[in-house]
Amino acid sequence: MKIAKLFAAAAVLALTAATAQAEIKTVRIGTEGAYPPFNSTDSSGQLVGFDIDIAKALCEKMKVECTFVAQDWDGIIPALLAKKFDAIVASMSITDERKEKVAFTVPYYQTPGDFIAPKDTKITDISPEALKGKTLGTQSATTAAVYLEEKYKGSEIKLYPTQDEANADLAAGRLDAILADKFVLYEWLEKSNDGKCCKFVGPDLKDVNPQGTGIAVRKEDNELREKINAAIKEIVADGTYKKINAKYFPFDIY
């Protein structure tokens, strides 16, 4: 009887080990594809950007094959939980609310929130009191959206499916200001024709994204999360992260 139990236990351990190994061979990455320069689609329909390059570097360190899935932002966490992909690499800010649904890796970059407004704006003070009665915009289901709705109750808040749509309304004069991640706004201001309309106003708001930006996985996928954590440390240590960073920004975002 004892021998039979030992054989049974050994079989269970072998099956568990085999399953764990099988899980690591392929990782499906979910991303938005509408948040340049972090993730977007090029003229050929391929996903490109900082997030995509970081994900590919992590997959190389983990020695796994990665595939990418484009997913609308509003449904990206439900899609992860429905197992349409295994990890979200989409510049997702780590928040306590999101941690109730998913598990996060260590942060792979830090970004403050910032306001931008037309170049001829009279806005200099970005406090809730100073922006009372102003029309403010940002992408829905983001930390910036939560921040505006919680702190700028005297303003009219407009939320958009994508950041590009919010930016377009600012350029068209339908918004007084936008709040969003600084690095995304920097890209638009510096590298797009529409962005020439506008400028940063006020100081960085570090409390918009206080926990940084991480990669989300399902709570039960702790092994995958730990492997990604180890890979993040590797690409920072060996200079891979620095090379990717320099491709998109003239300053360190880590």
TrEMBL record:
Residues 1-22 form the signal peptide. Its main location: periplasm. It comes from the Bacteria. SUPFAM superfamilies: Periplasmic binding protein-like II. Residues 26-252 form the Solute-binding protein family 3/N-terminal domain. The keyword Signal applies. PANTHER family: ARGININE-BINDING EXTRACELLULAR PROTEIN ARTP, MEMBRANE-BOUND LYTIC MUREIN TRANSGLYCOSYLASE F. Belongs to the bacterial solute-binding protein 3 family. This is ABC transporter substrate-binding protein. The lineage of its organism: Bacteria, Pseudomonadati, Pseudomonadota, Alphaproteobacteria, Hyphomicrobiales.
